Amino acid sequence: MRIALCSSFVPFVNGGYRNIVEWLEAALIENGHEVERVYLPEVDEPDLLFRQMAAFRFVDLSAADRIICFRPQAHLIRHPNKIVWFIHHLRGFYDLWDNPMYRGFPDDAKHRGIRDALRAVDTAALEEARRVFANSRVVSERLSRFNRIDSEPLFPPVHRPERFRFRTMNDEIVCICRLEHHKRQHLLVEALKHCRSGVRLRLCGTSAGTGYSSAVAQLANDWGVAERLTIDQRWITEDEKADRLGDCLAAAYLPVDEDSYGYPTLEAAHAGKPVLTVSDAGGVLEFVTHGVNGLVAEPDAVAVARAMDQLFEDRAATRRLGEAATARIAEMNISWSHVLERLLA
Amino acid sequence: MKVLVVNNMAPFVRGGAESLAEHLVKHLEIAGHEAELLRVPFQWEPATRIPSQMLMARAFELQNVDHVIALKFPAYLIQHPSKTIWLVHQYRQAYDLYDAGHSNLPAGQAGADIRNLIKNADDQCFRGARRLFAISDVTQQRLAHYNGLHADILRAPINDPERFTGGAPQGYIFAGGRINAAKRQHLLVEAMAFASKDVRLVVGGPPDTPGDARLLQETVERLGLRDRVRLELRYLDRQEYADFINGALAVASLPFDEESFSYVAMEAATAGKALLSTTDSGGVLGLAKHGETGWVADPSAEALAEAMSAAWIDASRTQELGAAAKSLWESHQINWPATVAALMS
Q1: What is the pLDDT of residue B261?
Q2: Contacts of A208 in chain B (CB under 8 A)
Q3: Where along chain A do its domains lie?
Q4: pLDDT tens digits, residue range B70-129?
Q5: Which of B64, B68, B77 to substitute to test the interface with A, most A CBs within 10 Å?
Q6: Backbone torsions φ then ψ of B327, nearest 5 degrees
Q7: DSSP β-bridge partners for residue A201
Q8: What is the mean pLDDT of residues A181-193?
């Protein structure tokens, strides 16, 4: 089958939004399909939104037998065999509308007008699709609440998950993701100050600007925890990632109200490691249940520190949580064979 | 600097410009820039939808990009304050092919309107560009003729010059590249019947049609040349192709009225091989100079045979011609560092 994978992108910005597309591409090619990856730019600026949406309507992919659309506003592309694997809305106009900090524009008549028109267009474009999948239950619920669209949660697997294996358990909790404020590495660093055990922390990742990463390093110095902390400020290779996860004590992933469980959670689980997260991490909680396959702390430094100490001190329990995390993957049916079966149905 | 290369995408079809764009990205990175490729889908049938796809290209917004290098219509219509156009070609069916009666634009006023629209958009886009380069003399001439604009010529370098190291001649003349009637490999085979019995010929490359392959095979049989002509009628892996060039006594390239130097001639000159061409081969004659860098024969089997024999009989002279071809090629300064510098200027 000739399949076009369509997504919007920001040039030079990498992240999970590209992984879901490119890993699916690899899986489809492995299964004998012809794939064209269509990345089109989009800027989420209210005043520029509708002309860009018109551009998406003009995209002609009639040469494809089927298209699969990911990041907005790629779902606006027209095609008789349109499948949408929805990963998020333009959230400022949806679930973050009531949050002035994340919304980024005023709640006035103009922006309410844009919001309502955008929602109407999204709904119409999603209704054109043969099937709509969501990458998490959170996103599926939003589609239902805001667009009255029924969608099936379809959890994105990681690329070649067999790369991640349990090897040993050292003293380190690792956090491998972009180094950004909304990923809350600062909370982990602050927690180190309250830890009473010999637990160590390793942060791996890069940030868009230099502000946050240097602030985190500064915090570590201010609180005198720099000796128990390693900051690897770069995009580590996939092999290094497999090594870090294979050898660590546990993984930490503390995003603010994430849309899905996030690849860091899944990668840790493949390596037999539990994830430490927080109660307001959103989609991560679809995967992690406190005391079953990971730990869910309140989002404050003392509570996070207590959880870190617990992972360090009761290693047998930590190992059991990690095994349960691996089992959770199969329980949620997170696999490429399932993804391909559903997307090509 | 963050440089976005913008090219067309004909979904599920790969052409020469795609490879050019990928190599441009690679060499921008080698020069220390961050580079990424944006491929804008373009479907030119039905022609009545061309205007909406032009609008599409114009309506996309770019952020996080410092400089754009755009190659083809309509992708080059994308808006950016720092845009350099390296024109591979315009939409020829609105220009020279329109005049020649080979256009897919509708007849009558509708076609004339689309043609004007394309020309006006081109005029505005080219005039607003930071720099405008044409990839060949023909492209430059068309721009001058139809749009009244001057563009400097910036020829496409060889994508992988490091493979063409040269080497000891193994006694054969090599004709590489796509095989079809216009490239006239059959004329070389016929010439072998008249050439010195010591001369051997290798023809290697993918035939455009089964008929092109059959013509060569039948000619070899008819003239009883099996011992002296080797036909490798298939797509050659790049290194295999380079090995044939590197081991050749001389390299033949006799396309009819070629627009450019032709990749085969450029690669042969890089490897320091004497060139064999014909008086009607157009752009190739920029590199193939009779008695200086090789032989330029009349396009007849007898004349070509004489040149082939000469290449064999005075092998040291042939090597001198090859060395001269290499210096002539190098004097053109067509290499990636110079190309990247021009496109970033």
Answers
A1: 85
A2: none
A3: 2-154, 161-331
A4: 999 999 999 999 999 999 889 999 998 899 888 999 999 999 999 999 999 999 999 999
A5: B64
A6: -65, -40
A7: A173, A229
A8: 95
Residue from the list A4, A52, A59 with its beta carbon closest to the beta carbon of B61: A52
pLDDT confidence tier of residue A63, bands split at 50, 70 and 90: very high
Running DSSP on this structure, what letter comes out for residue B122? H
* Averaged pLDDT of chain A: 95
| CB-CB neighbors (< 8 A) of B64 in chain A | 10-13
Which of A11, A36, A48 lies nearest to residue B36, judging by beta carbons?
Answer: A11
A146 — phi, psi (to 5°)?
-90, -30
The 3-state secondary structure of A216-251 reads HHHHHHHCCCHHHEEEECCCCCHHHHHHHHHHCCEE
Do the chains contact at A55 and B49, CB–CB below 8 Å?
Answer: no
B34/A52 Cβ within 8 A: no
- Checking A329-335 for CB contacts under 8 A at 24+ apart, the result is A329/A161, A329/A266, A329/A269, A329/A270, A332/A155, A332/A286, A332/A287, A333/A155, A334/A155, A334/A156, A334/A157, A334/A266, A335/A157
Q: Which CATH superfamily is domain A161-331 in?
A: Glycogen Phosphorylase B; (3.40.50.2000)
Q: Which two tokens stand for residue B309?
A: 């024999």
Q: ipTM, 2 decimals?
A: 0.87
Contact list in A for residue B34 (CB cut-off 8 A) is 12
Q: Which domains does chain B have, with CATH numbers?
A: 2-154 (3.40.50), 161-331 (3.40.50.2000)
Q: Phi and psi of B63, rounded to 5°?
A: -130, 160
Is the pLDDT score of A14 beyond 90? no
Cross-chain Cβ contact B61/A60 below 8 Å: no
Nearest to A285 by CA among A249, A256, A317, A260: A260
A62 with B43: Cβ contact below 8 A: yes
Instruction: Please judge whether A13 and B64 are an interchain contact, meaning their C-beta atoms are less than 8 angstroms apart.
Output: yes
For residue A3, the chain B residue with the least C-alpha distance is B12
A contact test, residue of B1, B7, B60 with most A CBs within 10 A: B60
Q: What is the residue-wise DSSP string for B279-317? A: TT-BGGGGT--BTTTEEEE-SSHHHHHHHHHHHHHTHHH
The dihedral of CA B87, B83, B4, A69: what is its sign? Answer: negative
List the structure tokens of A87. Answer: 């990963």
Interface of B with A (CB under 8 A): 2, 4, 9-13, 34, 36, 38-43, 49, 52-53, 55-57, 59-65
**In the CATH scheme, what architecture does the domain A2-154 have?**
3-Layer(aba) Sandwich (3.40)
